[in-house]
# Entry
Amino acid sequence: MPDLFEWLCRMGDNTLVLGHRVSEWCGHAPVLEEDIALANTALDLIGQTQMWLGLAAEVQGEGRSADDLAFRRDAWDFRNCLLVELPNRDFGHTLMRQFLFDSWHKLMLTGLCESQDDRIAAIAMKSLKEVSYHQERSADTVIGLGDGTAESHDRMQAALDRLWPYMGELFQPDAVDDRMTRQGIAPDLAALRSGFDAIIADTIQEATLVLTDSRFAHRGGRDGSRHTEHLGHMLAVMQVLPRSYPDARW
Amino acid sequence: MYAQMIQSEATTEDAEQLAAFQARIDAGERIEPKDWMPEGYRKTLIRQIGQHAHSEIVGQLPEGNWITRAPTLERKAILLAKVQDEAGHGLYLYCAAETLGISRDDLTEQLLSGRMKYSSIFNYPTLTWADVGAVGWLVDGAAIMNQVPLQRTSYGPYSRAMIRICKEESFHQRQGFDIMMKMAQGTEAQKRMAQDALNRFWYPSLMMFGPSDAESIHSTQNMAWRIKINSNDELRQKFVDQTVPQAEFLGLTIPDPNLRLNPETGHYDFSEPDWGEFFDVLRGNGPCNADRMEARQTAWSEGQWVRDGLMAHAAKKRARRVAAE
Amino acid sequence: MSNEWPLWEVFIRGQHGMSHRHVGSLHAPDAEMAIKNARDVYTRRNEGVSIWVVPAAQIAASSPSDKGPLFDPSRSKVYRHPTFFDIPDDVGAM
# Structure
């Protein structure tokens, strides 16, 4: 797989898969205002997916579209990090996952605004505004629930403990990432870590939660080598119509 | 219609006050929250606006059933935006009801305990992607028939909520029809889905308007109060007259052998829906009543710790701020 | 039941430098979340550039029974309106 295509799929699959997960809440959230806010987040992520996968399809040059990439690839061709494909579980897991991803995403997009590739910089600039709001909102909610009642605190701590081992994957560059960085297309992932740790430390402390010292990291999403079992189920649902009726237009 | 068979509440105030109130309504004045109003007017409105709000919220579920299976990114975004609008419309309507002295939590508890109803239509399943189109085209189409005149309803907050809702809803029916066009012009399988969706949603859509209420005393009182603007039959006829040519355009067949344009009236004659089925659905025996209530109950009970947690944090934050001063 | 999030009134300034206008209400645990919720609920269609939120319980409102004394007296002050004055056409735009 050519580097740029591979790398664009990493960006686009992250937003595709997370947008899908967040959209699963529509109609089921704890309170109407949150239901509406989650849908806004999901809509932003779907819009970003159209841009990233649209550019990926263009770069690939095989006449495919963003929809073809979203709905007609198998799980091993997906390049999203493992974090975003994890199931929603309770609202605490959903919001903690959102906060962790948003915090990385915001730093990544900030770096991408300086990309040598104008198309990528343009997508990053548009996305950054949306993601800055996502991050602000998810951080506030993590703080509120962490500092809320004994039950909400315990649920948020459990969510943090469960999700933290999926964070490291986003800061471990492989050969593709290294080449993107050398060409001035994307920032160095490893270099984003210190900024990320500072943001997380502040928020987690305000939320009265405790971060584990462990830096153990699950991996296998960003290169597609070993996704979780959850992705296959998600794709089975998401892709059912285009796969079942390959000749149909919708 | 999202508020069906609203019974008017009895009113016991003195005749002079009632006459003055009626005169304000007849003069086209809006009644505002702090104005004097008959107890029956207030209670009837709570029931109607509450039922309307519940319908928006439960109404998220049948279409929401297809958000994760929308066949393109654009369709997914459109459907999500639409179902999100319904949450917003529920929110606006609950706020309107709250001005009458009932809390949103109270209204929610009444929905979840079955004391308050929501529209019968949302107890029908969405089985294929064409159902998402049919819901937009037929269900939103029927709802609009009722909602447009309600913008002129006598109660100010309700009227303002309806104005906002109508403005936002204008794309809903169109997106439904747009899906139906794609399906009706698509592959054989898609055409079959489109016809099947129309077959299943036609009569439930006619039922949305409720049984004939020409003779109903409740209807007469609610119309005098201008919280009901048109009779059920009037709106149903309008809906049929509007929808039949649209179905013809799509090349779909409305499942009614008696359907024909009556040259004398200029309107379509059509078969009545099965009112026995309608009352079964209202009693809880529709195909999806139990599923819909379960989904709302789960969202509410599993959301309790979230609502409580954020509230507790807000209280702590306030206390810390006071302590710092 | 008493633990319900309080109600907030939402005011939004549209794009064109107008005043903030009341657009509706919502529930939120505190002012910060009320502003965020207002952003998500009431500006989905690009309706605003600025948001105010006020606890609904803090709104002081005039009483409907005072409507006569409060508002009727201004009806007779017709000279406050420009149409009260007849200016000859020859004077031009004024």
Q: What stands out?
A: The radius of gyration of chain C is 21 Å. The mean pLDDT of chain C is 88. Chain C has two helices and three strands. Chain C touches chain A through 13 residues (CB under 8 Å).
